[in-house]
Amino acid sequence: MQQQMAATVEEQMMVKAIRDECGWEALPKRIQAALATKEEWHRRIVSYCIRKRLPWSTCFARRVCKEGEYYEDMMRYLRKNLALYPYHLADYICRVMRISSFRYYCDVLFEAMKNEQPYDSIPNFSAADALRITGVGRNEFIDIMNKCRSKKIMWKLNKSIARELLPAEPADLAIEPWWGVRFVNFTLEEFKKLSEEETSAIDKICKEEVNSYVLFDPEVIRGLYRRGMVYFDVPVYPEDRFRVSRLEGFVSNKDQSYEDPIEELLYAVFVVSSENATVAELAATLQADLYQLQAAASFACRLGWAVKLLDTDSALRDSSTPSLPSNILDDDEGLRTSIASEKSGQELLSNDSDGQRRTSGAAYVGFIVDANVTSYLMMGSLSPGLKSHAVTLYEAGKLGDSCIADLCNDLASLEGKRFEGVLQEFANHAFSLRCFLECLLSGGTSPNETSYRTSEANNQEPSLQNDFDTSSAKESIEDGVDIVVENNESSHQMGELSQQDHEMGDLDAANGIASSSPSATVSESRETPSSKTTQFGGSNGTSPSSRTKRNYRINILRCESLASLAPSTLERLLLRDYDIMVSMIPFPSSSVIPSTAGLVHFGPPSYSSLTPWMKLALYTSGSCGPISAVFMKGQRLRLLPEPLASCEKALIWSWDQSVVGGLGGKFEGNLVKGGVLLHYLNSVTKYSAVIVQPLSLNDLDETGNIITMDVPLPLKNADGSITSTIACANLPQKQVSDLILLLEDLSNRVELSTVGYLRLVRLHRVCESNEVAKNESYEWIPLSLEFGIPLFNPKLCERICERVVESHLLQKDDISEHYEAMQNVRKRLRELCTEYQATGPTARLFNQRGGSKNNSPRKKLANISSGRWSPFHDPSSPTNGGSPRETDRTKPARRQRCFTEVLSFDGNILRSYALTPVYEAATRSVSEEQPTTPAAKTDHDDANTKDVALPGVNLIFDGAELHPFDIVACLQARQPLSLISEASAASLAMK
User: Fold this and answer.
1) Which tens digits make up the pLDDT trace of 295-332?
2) Secondary structure of 60-127 in the HEC alphabet?
């Protein structure tokens, strides 16, 4: 280990010495001892410069070797590794050495064929560029290898057969007009063979300062290119902007196993690229070398994966300005210097573009999905047109705004088709994705509202701003993107996607899922002028009829690609390019949660919200929820405590989504039978803490499953009402009334104005009288709260889009108020974690107290002999099974309570007691003063850390409040002394 560390330090010292261009005599003695000879030091210098693809004229290698030798060694290294052609060094490699990209890739293909390597051994970008230059792809490669192997002994003796089967001329290229044309150093014999037109073109290239392809005869230039007498330069300047398009022609082979800074930059460039950012700004965002970033952007433009955005400044640019800097700066200081040298020419353009983005009335949205969505879109049986979008999203990590309209059109081709099995799940994600994208593109407005605003704008006094508003509204209508709110279609058929061109289907009432109102069209009368001074993206705070509709531009981002970026790079990217971020459900815990200050995020506020901490926060904030027991990691139970011992089934979630024996890791939770609950808990608690919610037989339906209902969010309409959210639910009137009261109460305590859904569970209501109707003997209570867009459920996603339209969420003057609301949720989660984690005041004092050894007075709640435990009944009355009735939920609030109450189960009796005055005073002191220490960690830091604290004490939520749960008597290795002595006596008797 020490030798490895020493080698690492020496390597770092060597790299620094090469960057500082230290000669052999100036090297530290430690490096000289490791290298032994001066020649070895020179070889290290050349090797480093070759791996970095540095030009000989500006790197340290110019002092230790000749230019020709340096580039010959580089080409041997590149061929050996099947690497990418160094286009940024073509001025010497192609012009002087006469190694064109076509000749090079023929050598690369021959190298792979000679060694009988599979086509997949060629790296991604090399294979894609070779296909573009030579026309040899996977099928052509396999065909040539089959022809070679068919010759049997001839192939083994003479590998050059493969070279004869490779193309003799390069394939036709798609050449952009702004590409530059350069000629090579050809011989006198080659010059004599030129035609008159070709000679004239060569003379023009020599004399003219601007050699754009558009200035020449295309046929003449293509003829010279096929004979290897000219090559193309793709100039990229620091102030240029480009847009990443679809990765047409991408080859999904292995990633490179060698070092190539340009290839490594390409993936990051795809994610952070923006048409509003210059190349110099991208380099600053990535903290990358400007020269290498220009080379990477130039290569992306060559393959057609990036489109350069031309403007008048680029057309009038001084022709003497070099496309690439002449100096190579590898360290951070050099990067700042190179960027500062270009700042004077780009500062005004940068400021203007940012101001245009902020004041143009368009908000930029980033929709975060995971790799599973790309795999669903990749299924060719769904739609062949989706494959290129899926490849772009997976490989580039981003699908830009220019591709969203085409994606929606390709997704529309799935409507009306029937799917079976796993394909139905793929189709569900595709349907939900299109529904939400169209909702965003429409600005969260209905077609009627858009038409009304357009007509009002036309009736007003003509002005430039009104004309712009009208054209923007018309564009939205023509694009067919404002079609997410009509509710007059019939319910969805099983396995079939309903038409979505101008209407949305009603919900299937048989599923017992609440729906929005039949007519979800938003009228202008609901919209009221906002009195807030803080406005967002083009809203002017005037009356609704004259207010400008806010447009949205969407980028789809793959969460794995965002996670690969450095945290500082990701923060700069989000701050620069996006106003709103939206996450899918379920959100992978390994992904990065956007936490940039001020950025509106319709998704999980922190990593704690992805764990059962969010359930506890929901229950405690609303003082309502199912009875839940929390067990710490590392415990092993010998018997189940009440209320788990008598349950029929139980819902279980683990903190880290552990999977044991096929169970666990399920987003909706696992439903486990009561008979195997003890074994399952002992298996899961080895790896993670768990939360368990017991269920009685009356809580389940005829099939033995729980009945849930998903309430789409935002909960309230623009006028503040919530009736339309559940108006079409197939529920009795009494349950509907109770449900509305529950939602209104929750909305006052919990943040429900975000995008997502609230899941309710139906539990049996314990009634004193048996005369209550059957369908009124149940109640709905909150089970979980999810933030984001559930792509797995098309109906729920459709209803969430309807709620976005009815609430005018995307057209609010001050949408940033959502950021403050999520900060409150994050604060509540942090307080809960701080209180009950292992180092929290409650857990520390509870463990110091020694569990059930405390001699403080105890209050007997129930003698458990049969039935299900309920803490709301009187101690003298036995439990009769079922959930607490609604009126009983107020008893905990009326009961005399101390500051900290603990529930304890000794194997037979469940007791309630308070900490002694000493501990109670200590708890109050810690809980009131301790937060000053952990509060030093800001909200930003809390969202960045993925290390979520586990519970440090067993807990139980009794339906109204959360208490520590003393189950010492239920744990293994904690048997009573009488039992241990009896076992010892029995073992002695056997001897």
Assistant:
1) 999 999 999 998 888 754 444 343 334 444 433 334 44
2) HHHHCCCHHHHHHHHHHHHHHCCCCCCHHHHHHHCCCCCCCHHHHHHHHHHHHHHCCCCHHHCCHHHH
The C-alpha atoms of residue 782 and residue 959 are separated, in whole angstroms, by: 11
Give me the helix-helix angle, 917-929 and 841-849, nearest 10°: 160
What does the block give as tokens for 984?
Answer: 């010892």
Q: What b/e string do you get for 854-884 counting C-beta neighbours within 10 Å, with b at 16 or more?
A: beeebeebbebeebbbbbbbeeeeebebbbb
Pairing of strands 663-664, 659-660: antiparallel
Rounded distance, CA 933 to CA 931, Å?
5
Give the 3-state secondary structure of 389-423. HHHHHHHHCEECHHHHHHHHHHHHCCCCCECCCHH
User: Tell me, what amino acid is at 470?
Assistant: T
Question: What is the pLDDT at residue 279?
Answer: 92
Q: Which amino acid is at 407?
A: L
Residue 626 exposure: Cα atoms within 13 Å on the Cβ side: 30
One-character DSSP codes across 758-814: EEEEEEEBP-S-TTS-GGGSEEEEEEEEEESEETT-HHHHHHHHHHHHHHTGGG-TT
The 10s digit of each residue's pLDDT in 432-487 is 999 999 999 988 887 665 544 444 444 443 443 444 343 443 343 334 333 333 33
Q: Any residues with CB less than 8 A from the CB of 492 and at least 6 apart, and which?
A: 498, 505, 508, 794, 795
pLDDT of residue 157: 84
The tens digit of pLDDT for each residue in 182-234 reads: 989 888 888 888 899 989 998 888 877 678 899 999 999 999 999 999 999 99
- Distance (Å, whole) CA 396 – CA 305: 10
Strands of 756-764's sheet, edge to edge?
A: 708-713, 756-764, 778-787
Write the pLDDT tens digit of every residue in 230-253. Answer: 999 999 999 999 888 888 888 887
CA distance 194 to 937: 73
- At residue 67, φ and ψ (nearest 5 deg) are -65, -45
Quick one: which H or E segment has residue 652?
strand 649-654
Instruction: Give whole-number Cα distances, 202 to 226, 315, 582, in Å.
Output: 15, 23, 54
Question: CA torsion 523→528→534→537, rounded to 10°?
Answer: 20
What is d(CA 123, CA 400) in angstroms, rounded to the nearest whole number?
Answer: 25
Q: Please determine, for residue 642, whether its predicted confidence score (pLDDT) is greater than 60.
A: yes
Task: Tell me how far apart the alpha carbons of residues 890 and 872 are, in angstroms, rounded to a whole number.
Answer: 9
pTM of the predicted model as reported, rounded to 2 decimal places: 0.75
- The residues pairing with 582 across neighbouring beta strands, listed in sequence order, are 367, 602
Can you read off the two tokens belonging to residue 755? 């995008």
